[in-house]
Every structure is written in C-alpha cells, then in structure tokens.
Amino acid sequence: MISVVIGLGFGDEGKGLVTEYLCSNPGTLVVRYSGGQQAGHTVFKDKIRHIFSNFGSGTLSGTPTYWSKFCTVDPIGLMNELHILLKKGVLPTLFIDKKCPITTPYDTKHNQICDKNNGTCGVGVGRTIVREENHYSLLVGDILFPSVFKMKLDLIKYYYRIHEKISLNRFNECIEGIKNNHIIFVDEKPDCIHTVFEGSQGLLLDQNIGFFPHVTHGSVGLKNIIVRGTDFADMEVYLVTRAYQTRHGKGPMTNENIPHNILLDKDETNITNKFQGEFRRSLLDLDLLKYAIDKEYQLKYVKKTLVITCLDHIINEYRYTHKGNIVYCDDEDQFIDQISSLLGITNILISRTPYSSKIERWTP
Of the four listed, 88, 191, 271, 291, which is most buried by Cβ atoms within 10 Å? Predict the structure, then answer.
C-alpha cells in the first residue's frame, strides 16, 4: 500500500498534518523523497507540538522515517532536532540512505549570500544539489571513511572559492553525533506494509512546473516515486491545499490585489525568515491548482484525494477565483463542492487548524 502526500501550491499547505493522519497503523514507514532540511511540517499530537524538518511527520506516532537519496542531509539541523525530540520524550527512528548528499556550512553560506533574492530558506538545499550535479560530491556514506570525507570537504571549500574563515567545529561534532546516535545508514528502503511518501514544498515550486527562478532545485511530484514496475492500483495521492493561497517569500502569486478577511493563524509556523521574507496570503486560485495537477501528468493514473486544510481561517470568506473571476459561495459546503467539481476530484478530506485528529471525510 502506497500513500503519497503532495502540496498543490507554493508550500505550507499542511503536508505534515496529512502525513501524521496516515500513520495510524503499525507497519507504516514515512519516506521523505524530495527536498531536505528546508521543510517545516508542523504536527500536534498528545499535547506535543513539533515542527519537522529532518524527521518524518509520523514520528510522534512512533512511525520510522526513511530519508531517501533524493533528499539532502544537514548534520547540524539533524542533530539539533534530534535533541529537541529527545527532550520532548520522543525517541525517533531514522534510516538514512548512504547516497544522500550532505549539506556543509560552505553550501549554507553560499546559499545565504547568493540566493537571498529568490525566496530561499537559507539552509543550503539548492546549493547542495547543484554542487552534486557539478560532481563535487559529499554523501552520507562518506562519513564512514574519515580521510575521504576530509578530502571531499576541502574540495568543496575550493569549489566555492571561499577565503574567509568558516568554523567547522559544530559541523564536525554533528558528523560524529550522527554516527553515534539513533540513526541507521542503509542502502535501500526498509520493508514495510504501508509506505507514506511525505512531499516537500508544493507542485508550484517544482523546478519543471513552477515559475523560474522562484522554484526549488528538485522534483516535488511523483518523479522520485514512480519507477519501472510501479503498480498504480496500489497508490493513492493526497493533494493538499489550504482553503486559501499562500506563498512564503518572493515570486509570483495571484489575487494579492483582492482585499480579504483571511484569518492569520496564531500558531503559524513560517511567518518571517530573514532569507525568505514575508509570508503572503490571498484568495485560492483554482486555475493555479488545475495547472499544477495537469502538469504533473502521471496523476491521471492514480487514485486522488483532495485535502483542504485551514478551513477555519476563511469563515465568512468563502470565495475563490476561476478564469480570472471571483466566485462567491454561500457557505463552506458550497465552497468545497465547487472546488471538488472544478478539479474533478470526488474524494475530499478537510481539516481545521491545528489538530490532525480533526481531519475528516467530507461528503456533499
């Protein structure tokens, strides 16, 4: 059984909430299959609130995480989050593919200097991927070979032409911590009964779908999941959107010229970031959602469930745009029904901030 959680917009849709919802049964494994440490997936469970960046969002339910080769690994962020989880009484299980690229302080520094105008999170994911594509590679498996690891790290400093002093003390401490803690290096995905693929960001930030240069360096959709022999009959894709449109940082977004009364969540995870900038909101644009679904053409072969989150933020604001026109709805049911009809998806889940236990199936 395969479940895939994909954001339909520019990120911040509620992917962590949906992932945790799908982790209720034993034998489940969460797979992070895109992006890396730039995720900020917020989960509430049993009075614990946590923002997941380096572990899967099923961790509070005891679900292990597999960090696939398509994801970057930030040793400092990983160890920092591990310590936070342990302080909360949570003992996570994390499998990391040996082929995962490692983000170094050099990648992060270069990212923060050179990409600040493109809406970057500033944690080095994109720069790590580009460096790997240029053959200056440093992988998790290299940690097992200290001499090789040091030589490759020196070459990465040369790659960026970095002359200033950048301390590697904390980085090296965390490399040792990764070897000595609750982290298991593997060559392939562990066996499981139910695989939940937890996406990063949203389809409108996919490098082949979004609006360059304000995109991520990677594939947010099904590319990293679907391989030869994939049985589409066993797959259900959960397409997640808020009841309104959001974008964190720079880049194009529609409907910002239309006044609205969308409530700001007091527990919002990603409000400000000195590298990303402003957290923006506007009315939902059905044309953008339809475009994202159409461009990810393999979605036509799989069962789809639409998840609409944050419905409590748009009380008395049941509007969206379609073909450039504002569409007014009488109530929440009409709002959901029309979105379902326009997107051609009849399986609908809904939620109201912030608890995953509030996810429920909507029926017209």
Answer: 291
Distances (CA, A) of 198 to 2, 45, 47, 67, 79: 11, 18, 23, 10, 21
pLDDT digits (tens, 9 = 90+) for 277-322: 688 899 999 999 999 999 998 898 899 999 999 999 998 899 999 9
What angle (nearest 5°) sits at the alpha carbon of residue 246, between those of residues 241 and 251? Answer: 125
At what angle are helices 332-343 and 286-295 packed, to 10 degrees?
30
Our measurement of the distance from residue 161's CA atom to the centroid of its chain's CA atoms, rounded to an integer in Å, reads 31
Is the separation of the CB atoms in 278 and 241 below 8 Å? no
Task: Give the closest residue to 96 by CA, choosing from 161, 209, 154, 175.
Answer: 175
Chain mean pLDDT for the chain:
88
Q: Mapping DSSP to helix (H, G, I), strand (E, B) and coil, where does residue 301 land?
A: helix
- With CA atoms as reference, report the closest residue to 247 among 313, 202, 294: 202
- 197-225 confidence digits (pLDDT tens): 999 889 999 989 988 888 788 788 888 88
Q: For the whole prediction, is pTM greater than 0.85?
A: yes
Q: Following DSSP, what letter does each residue of 205-245 receive, concatenated?
A: GSTTTS-TTSS-SS--SSTTT--TT--GGGEEEEEEEESSE
| Model confidence pLDDT, tens digit, residues 106-152 | 888 877 766 555 556 667 777 888 888 999 999 999 999 999 999 99
Arithmetic mean of pLDDT, 8-15: 91
Q: Read off the tokens for 329.
A: 């709805």
Chain centroid to CA 298? 20
Tokens 């604001």 correspond to 317
User: Which domains are assigned to the chain?
Assistant: 2-96+188-362 (3.40.440.10)
SS3 (DSSP) at 108:
helix
